[in-house]
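Running this now, will post back.
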Amino acid sequence: MEKYVMAALSLLLFSGFSLLAARAWQKRKQEQTANFVAPLEALDYFGELIAKSSGFYVATTYAENHLERISAYGLGARGICQILVFGEGVLIVRNGERPLAIAKSALDEISANQVAIDKAVEAKGLMSIIWSQNSISFATHLRIIDQDKRSQIQDAINSLLTPSETGAVSQ
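Update: finished.
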């Protein structure tokens, strides 16, 4: 009898903590939705395709805090993606989620990192695209396993940055 009481209590505690976690996630999502508008889903004009690669969408965070995931507008879900760099910006097409488009004018820099939110990889294994929208700076973190493809994407994005911006990634 005692083990059934303990099992029921454990189940009740687990359910309570799960509910609290879900409510906290929803509250954060609502606060973020109120703080900024939805990012672009497509570029106004695509132009020439400069580079393309498949990879993993890790997260979008605030640029100054890579440990705070943006959950608003579907940006919180990680997954497989296609990264397309056009003359007018970057398009990230994620499986099962809305696409994320970053116009050339919104690009601030690109960097290589090892850690973001809940992902740690080899040195310079994550690519972080820093971009701005309505004076809020974001970092979108991507993982491209193939080093040649990663270099191509980094070089293509660097070519979109104006010479006055410091965003060159050291290889």
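The chain has two domains: 1-35, 49-160. More later if anyone needs it.
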